[in-house]
Design a protein that fits this description.
The chain is α/β, with parallel strands linked by helices and about 450 residues long. About 30% of the residues lie in helices and about 20% in strands. The protein has helices at about 40-55, 90-95, 95-120, 140-155, 165-170, 190-205, 270-275, 320-325, 325-340, 390-405, 430-450, and strands spanning about 30-40, 60-65, 80, 130-135, 160-165, 180-185, 205-210, 215-220, 225, 230-240, 255-265, 285, 295, 300-305, 350-360, 370, 380. Strands 3, 4, 5, 6, 11, 12, 13, 14 and 15 form a 9-stranded mixed beta sheet that branches. Strands 1, 2, 7, 8, 9, 10, 16 and 17 form an 8-stranded mixed beta sheet that branches. β13 and β14 (about 300-305) form a beta hairpin. It is globular, with a radius of gyration of 21 Å. The protein binds flavin-adenine dinucleotide.
Amino acid sequence: MTVPNPVPERPASPWWQVPDPLRAVPLRGDEVADVAVVGGGIAGLAAAYHLSVALPGRRIVVLEARRVGAGGSGCSTGIVAPGVGGPITQLRRRYGDAVAARMFARSVDAVRCTVDLVRDEGMACDLEVNGQLVAAVTHRQDLALREQARAYADLGFDVPYLPRREVSALLRTDAYAGALRHPLAATLDPVALCRALRGRLQERGVAVYEDSPVTALVPGPPATLSTPAGRVTAGRTVLATDGFTAGLGVLTDTVVPLTAHVVRTAALNAHEMAALGWRLRDSVVDCRTFFDYYRLTPDNRIILGGGRVGVPVPGPGNGSRDGDDRSGQAAWRRLESRLRRLFPLLDDVPVTERWSGRIGAIVDRLPHVGAVPRAPGVWFTGGWCGHGIPLSVAAGADLAERIGAERGDREPVPWQRDRSPQLPRDPWRRWGLQAYVRSLDAVDRVQASVDGSTRPRAA
Ligand SMILES: Cc1cc2nc3c(=O)[nH]c(=O)nc-3n(C[C@H](O)[C@H](O)[C@H](O)COP(=O)(O)OP(=O)(O)OC[C@H]3O[C@@H](n4cnc5c(N)ncnc54)[C@H](O)[C@@H]3O)c2cc1C
């Protein structure tokens, strides 16, 4: 199947304001590789890194359509936090205690694995290790969080519940009725991470080609991957293309592209920071279906993402373009007004950047790290549902073990799988998804208004 370059030249996120003088060359001519990785986002680069460790001396090639970090990675808010597949209480019901505990533990390990990789490799990407608050915006959510804290304790994890007054001591807003606190989380600059990974890969002898979109993929083994000026014949292929995967003609009914939206403020001054009292600098995520998530940057800007996701029209695009349409504008306006309601004190602080990016989601809210059905020798790592920084870094190590035919010593988790649930095809899928997204958003809004104010009740 032949496709045009699926990714536009440059995402709109401010991470891209830092120039990149080390752009890699495009692929020219024919190459033979042991493993070809398609996609130079965090998932593809981390997979290539772990493959280069697990398979020393083998030829590993990365093919990136534009520049490393040009997809969802480069539009991300850069929060590295635990959790996968929904609240722990839901995971217990769905998978039972042992598997739920393993899933959560693996997500915590993924955070640790990301932090360790950045530190061990000395990668400059503004890593800040902190924690994460998971905050309740309604009283019903607050009750659910208390139940989750009990579930974590039952399963042997330390994720304490903090009542309103303790949350306000960590962050001065009265928007939250209570919160859980994950003690280990981090924030980073995702484009700097991609560029640093590219550098480490090159030092390890991995060939990274930018401006090299795979325009045709013939599965193997060996697979043939064609780009505009070259071709790679590879014994194994790893697709790390997340929300762009359908463009390659694989997993088209499984990995659904969605558009996520973000805004960033100007830097807060010392007086504004003191007023916020955000002393632990934890990132925050709330409990809505379309949750808000936000963090501080090293120069004290707030980056806030969330709200209703968009359903992009099928075809090329990276979501920045999708974000420029009317629904993107509306999403940014909503994010700004949420920011003002969260922090009325910051009314004068302007929002200076707005952007959107593409994520890949699977209907059961779990990623897919494993073989691609009916494509021997082709593997996929993606479908992160917008939560892919730590999971994709850790998944790179799992994939490297499987591709290297090494027996890992860890029990599998449900997202290490060779099949994932499918959705109906377009046009039904797009209509159905739009209706589903609208209905979930409506539930969020109704719950917030019916379920009581998030603000403290007057005495
Ligand atoms: C707005 C937004 C906010 C987010 N915030 C967070 C967050 O705070 N925390 C978090 O954990 N996650 C977040 N995410 C998700 C996270 O960034 C990703 O899940 C993670 O970086 C892994 O991405 P990836 O490498 O799988 O995909 P991508 O970064 O999308 O990489 C896919 C790559 O494949 C390339 N590509 C596509 N097609 C081809 C082709 N045919 N040939 C060659 N190359 C191709 C693309 O150019 C792209 O570089 C966010 C995402 C968005 C969009």
